[in-house]
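Work package 3, deliverable 3.1, input record:
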Amino acid sequence: MPRTGHGGSTSNAGNLGVRTGSQEADAQSLLALFTSADDPYGCHVSSFGGGQFLDLAELTDDERVLRQEAHRIAVEVLRPAAWSLDRMTPMERISPGSPFFTAMATLKSLGYHRLFLPPEAGGPDQRLSALTQSVVLEELGWGSLGLATAFLVDMLPVMCMSNFGSQELKDDLMVPWVDDETGSYHGCWAITEPDHGSDFISVRDSESSTYGRAQLVAERVDGGWVLRGQKSAWVSSGPIATHAAVHAQAGGDGDLVHSLFAVVDLDQPGVRRGPPADMMGVRDDPQGEIFFDGVAVPERNVLVPPGPLYPAFQDQLLCLTSSVISNVAVGVARAAFEEALHHARTRIQGGGQLSRHKNIQLTLYGMFERVETARAYTRAALAHTQANLPGASELAAGASPRHSRAAQVFAKRIAYEVAHDALQVVGAQGLSHDALVEKLFRDARSLLIEDGTLEVLALDAARDLIDNYERTDYDLEEMMATW
Ligand SMILES: Cc1cc2nc3c(=O)[nH]c(=O)nc-3n(C[C@H](O)[C@H](O)[C@H](O)COP(=O)(O)OP(=O)(O)OC[C@H]3O[C@@H](n4cnc5c(N)ncnc54)[C@H](O)[C@@H]3O)c2cc1C
């Protein structure tokens, strides 16, 4: 029986590490919070399609079970929670009892946070294939872009600890985090700063040495580092996270790539949070500033010290985040397409079903074509990235930045275009706050900025392809040598 977590207390469905059937008893009480008629926030659940569509990939039985399970969670947990959160004030969203915490606790109680980890870090005994990861990510994105983002930023510090952490850090922090089934731990990724948004994404820009002093600086002290400064107001889950994966410029001199990467406990003196941001989209994940006023970071929490490894690490981390978010974006696009398809089949206009009109047919076809092509490319990019990240195997020479950035740019653009077309198909109803397609449009628009703007990601990819097009492997050594 595969293991899911260090406690080894759960058994698994389909050998893939997510609880189903009788093991869901505890989770059901959490789910009931969303499905109860007494739900104080009200629910809007659109599950049209039921997760049924022809997937051109050959899924195994296990993979099919996992997709059904992830879709069920998207329908029963993520969509209702996201719908409620979207209508709440920023402070309501982060107050105790908010659907945000219940949704996160449900995902943890079901073991989703372990699903993507290697076996040695508490993941399934057999590591999830890249295809299965893509399938699950698409379902999470279909359910809620914000909650999928919260899920991913929670995993980021854990994944980095599993690769770069000392045994002591793993035992003290990673193991309880992975074993947690109630949502006691929550991570965030604190990289951008008020005056350095795109700057942190433009690692390959030859002018990056002119970007100036970072706003979060790490100073060397006995036994570790001290952090002073702040991160931007857009840190996903920043207002509620217990720990942050932090990029901080070492000493405050040189380029932004003269930085370190550390996991920082946010429940300690010197940490302060700004108010949660009130954004147009992705409102189901709270974003906010984190201030650091003399915050101690012990040496063991520094996963990547300042030095030649840091720029290569950051570049490869962006390959991973780009490949992952691109699969989530496909889920957003599919959700918008399915809303439009359902509407076109059921709305009567012009003497018959909307779907009888040629312009609607062509629009639906165009949306379908884009979702399908985005799915194919983003899956290929994630598979390449997973296989080639340093450490993935003895032969792994690094993932391709130009391909992962292209996947992110392509999938985000398609999510936006499809959501835009869906709104047009739905007509005035789609502009109403009561329409899911209206939320999907706002989310898809926000996605063009989240995790790097399309322009900056495309420029980064362009620099890589101009310099490295003929190379089939990533030149980690050259990058370290030129640091
Ligand atoms: C929903 C959401 C979630 C987010 N989550 C996180 C998170 O978890 N952690 C985190 O740290 N940050 C997060 N961010 C921040 C996000 O990464 C930044 O917003 C993004 O990188 C762009 O930075 P900026 O908003 O400061 O825009 P700017 O960098 O100011 O860019 C403004 C405009 O100028 C263009 N531009 C900027 N620089 C260049 C350049 N060098 N060349 C050409 N064009 C340029 C951009 O394309 C853009 O159109 C999130 C943002 C959003 C919207």
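The first helix runs from residue 25 to 35.
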